[in-house]
Amino acid sequence: MRQIILDVDTGNDDAVAIMMAGLHPEITLLGCTTVAGNLPVANTTENTLRVLHHIGRSDVPVFRGLGVPFAPHPFPTPADFVSSATPVHQDELELEPSPVAAQSASAVEWLVETLRNATEKITLVPVGPLTNIAAAVTIAPEIVDAVDEIVIMGGSASHGNETSQAEFNIFEDPVAAHVVINAGFKRLTLVTLDATRKARVSAAQCRELEALGTPGATATAQILDYYIRGNSDKALGSAAVHDALCIAYLLDPAVIDVSRLHVAVDTVGFHTYGRTLVDLTGIGGQTPNASVALSADSARFFDLLRGTLAA
After folding, report:
1. Is-contact 167 276, C-beta < 8 A?
2. Whole-prediction pTM value?
3. Spatial distance between the Cα atoms of 273 and 270, rounded to a whole number of angstroms
4. Which of 58, 227, 276, 293 could pair with 191 in a Cys bridge, judged by C-beta atoms 3.0 to 4.6 Å apart?
5. Per residue in 228-268, pLDDT tens?
6. What rounded mean pLDDT belongs to the chain?
7. 10 Å Cβ neighbour count for 254?
8. How many Cβ atoms are within 10 Å of 309's Cβ, its own excluded?
């Protein structure tokens, strides 16, 4: 049984990750912390509460986190120049509002307290910008020893999805990503776009989920239908469910292929700001500091998703 904390910027694929973690019997979801990323933190918090309520898991506490990056962006962002006609993420998920509010403690405060007092090791699963995690390990560096594994959705060894170079989560707060990668976690797994782009769900598979009739499956079908319509590669008729692949990995590590590699984050370049520098060949001579997922088994991923949501 894995004890996990999910750090989310809910969002569509975050919602699916929450449902998988909240419904699977082999995972104990200790809490969800929220962060600004896909949406402002007020929206990510509200959406997280709605998802948990929808699947009957309002017992899972939600802690509102930081609403601005750990360090300000030194350069304009793509959003300053480009606006999408179809937003990828819904400001408010079309789910019933939760009667339960977010906790009064802040996300960073709760992370530090929980990890300091842990009697058994906890798995951290941040699937948004790493702002909360960076703040927590800066305040209390010793908490890394309470973490069994940190599983991060972020980065790319090839091309980005926010800029030509950078993946969204890392680009939103590269300094936070640099802090977390260098914080001393003994097991750090980076689930990159190279893997998550293969963890796709098609419109036909959404109908398959919808037919299951469970709250989790029907909500996932509805959310992913919207995601497919708003996705930049919607012509494929499918969408990559990036964040949910991290939960699938916790349930079945064979769903991704990982390599031990050295990873750094560009925090200074103009054209390369937020890029994850993945040394694929070891040419830099630095000791590997991460298990990097570069591929995923799409069929295995969907089987895990469907099996979890069927319950």
Report:
1. yes
2. 0.95
3. 6
4. 293
5. 887 655 557 899 999 999 999 999 999 999 999 999 999 99
6. 93
7. 9
8. 23
List of domains in the chain: 2-309 (3.90.245.10)
Distance between CA 146 and CA 38 in Å, rounded? 28
Q: Select from 122, 169, 157, 161 the least CA-distant residue to 2.
A: 122
CB of 198 closer than 8 Å to CB of 295: yes
Taking phi over 0 as left and psi of -120 to 50 as alpha, with beta for the rest, 11 belongs to left
Over residues 38-66, mean pLDDT: 97
Sheet holding 188-191, edge to edge: 62-64, 27-34, 2-8, 122-126, 147-153, 188-191, 290-296, 256-265, 276-279
Q: Three-state SS for 47?
A: helix
Instruction: Return the closest-CA partner of residue 223 out of 199, 193, 203, 237.
Output: 203
Give me the DSSP letters along 209-247.
HHHH--HHHHHHHHHHHHHHHHSTTGGGSEEE-HHHHHH
Q: For residues 305 and 43, what is the distance between their CA atoms, to the nearest angstrom?
A: 25
Number of helices and strands in the chain (H, E): 11, 11
> CA 274, CA 173: separation in Å to the nearest integer?
7
What type of residue is 1?
Answer: M
Contacts of 72 (CB under 8 A, 6+ apart): none
Catalytic machinery residues: 242
